[in-house]
Structures are given as C-alpha cells and as structure tokens.
Amino acid sequence: MKKLHLFLLSATLIGSAAALMSFTREAGDAPHQYLQLTTIESAVPGGLARSRMIATDKTGAVEEVKLENFYSMVGINFENIRFNDAQITTKLEAYAAEGWELVSVSSAFTATPSSQGSGGNGIVISRYLLKKHH
After folding, report:
1. Domain shared by 113 and 47, yes or no
2. Same domain, 17 and 37
3. In this predicted structure, what is the pLDDT of residue 119?
C-alpha cells in the first residue's frame, strides 16, 4: 500500500511539473499552429441567401470565398452542391499541400420558420479545424 501511495504521489508531481512547464512556455514556442475553415451554406428556398467559405488564421486574417446556395428558384440545385464540394475539397487539398492536417470537422443545421409558411429557412454550417506542426 505504501508503494502505491508513493507511486501516486510521484505521478502527481510529474504531471504537475509538466503542466506548469506547458503554462510557462512562450506562445511562440507552441508546437502547432491552428487554422479554422468555416463553410456556411444557405438552405433558403429560392436561393435568396448568401453562402460562403471563410478561413481565419491565428493572426485573425480572414479569407472569404463565395459558395453557391443549395436552392435555386426551382428547388434544390445539385449542381450548386457539386460546385461547393469542389471548392471545399480544393481548399482542403491546398492546405494539405502547405503541411496543414485536418484535425476535426463539426457540422450543424439551423432552421427558422418561413414567413410564407411553406417550409423552413436555414443554414448548414461546417467547421474544419486544421493544425500544422512547426
């Protein structure tokens, strides 16, 4: 039992020392850079909204690329979806060529009632988190 307590105490001290060293490290010494890529795709009937791909780096610099809306005046537009998929894939491939690694993707759909009562409006938002090793 005494050996277990000694082991736990040692592990706690080592863990605390490692945490303290990570907190005292300079921000420029971080082992990774992170970049956030966000796509906002309109699911508004009639294609009346805006869709965008927005990339933000650690300095706050923003790059915005126009995407197409999911709907046109006649309904869902699969050509627009294919266009958006190609734009997003091209951007992710360019980042990969620069040494960025895709860490995670999260998506959500938000809907609001239509003012005409004929369905909902909304957006599909996806966030891509990328990291690069220094």
Report:
1. yes
2. no
3. 54
- pTM comes to 0.69
Count of the separate structural domains present in the chain: 2
**Edge-to-edge strand list for the sheet holding 32-42:** 62-67, 51-56, 32-42, 120-133, 101-113
Which ranges of the chain have pLDDT less than 70? 1-29, 47-48, 112-120
Claim to verify: residue 69 and residue 126 sit in the same structural domain? yes
> What token pair was written down for 128?
């891509």
Same domain, 58 and 105: yes
Half-sphere exposure of 4 (CA within 13 A, CB side): 1
CA distances from 85 to 1, 41, 81, 88 (A): 59, 11, 6, 5
Q: In the chain, what percentage of residues exceed pLDDT 70?
A: 70
What is the DSSP-derived secondary structure letter of residue 25? S
Q: Which domain holds residue 15?
A: 1-29
Mention every residue, 6+ apart, whose C-beta is less than 8 A from residue 71.
42, 43, 44, 45, 46, 47, 77
